[in-house]
């Protein structure tokens, strides 16, 4: 398994619904969606107040003033739509932010006839923090903080210029500036905090995926090593033994066939393992397969069959391959002395296969870890199908018992 395959498989284990770089910012994208929705709701509430305030104080048709309203409320409406459909949110928010700054700078000149006497907040006051949240959506943190600090004071300066720096304007404007300053900084801090949390979550996910990828690659490499080692023991070693013992033309022909099969399996070693299906296989077929194995190895051994029954095809395959390995071990290390194979079916409950010899025996615990003939080809193979393999060996010989039962 390559690193890319492992990475893709790891992301598939995490339910995100997409692949690629967007997956790496799953939490970040969700947080941006939440921020856009919150901005839309807040901008809608404040914008409606500003619009109603502007329309209420528009007693005469003042073209410059109406133009200022159109300049800021059109991008405001577009920003609401974009936040709703999550398309072009940053561009729309940035456009509204710029439009509001232009309106704010033009306010003392174009709207000089509005609210000069009244110290109540004009409609542009309600949009100061809307511009702040637009900056949170559209711009980096530096610009957000800059506007949160400078924006309220710029609004205050504009209001004082409009009111001729009158005493009534100083008190109200100071209150408005302090309110928008605090609220703006809070909004920026919340946006930064939520985005930082989302970034932390995405980073943690990335590290988890990297760890999973490494573990998956290591596990795949180990499985491949075990599979190749088992193949070498099951097919290649058996073919070499058969070739060594071949004397007659028939034995040589069998050795050639075994070598051809071994080469074919080596060539297809990277293909997915054929573990078999759950279709039932009769116990008699396992016994017949082991008789053929003994014949191919060119040794004299009795293969006895007792009982009857059937097991799933995958169990039959694994049991036969494990028994073949046990037979090969007996031939290689015990010269097939006293080799005997017993296949016993237990009806609907399972089966047992015993491979025994009268060789010198060995200590299974002292077998080198890199020798996988027992660990991979017998023990691990039976465990993979829910079976059990036991090995009893002493100076009087070795007995390998393979057992599988319906759970």
TrEMBL record:
Superkingdom as given in the UniProt entry: Bacteria
Organism: Microbacterium capsulatum
GO-annotated molecular function: ATP binding
Protein name, UniProt field: ATP-binding protein
Record PANTHER family: NITRATE/NITRITE SENSOR PROTEIN NARX-RELATED
Membrane-traversing stretches: 34-56, 68-86, 93-112, 124-157, 169-194
InterPro entries given in the database record: HATPase_C_sf, Sensor_HK_TwoCompSys
Keyword annotations of the record: ATP-binding, Kinase, Membrane, Nucleotide-binding, Transferase, Transmembrane, Transmembrane helix, Two-component regulatory system
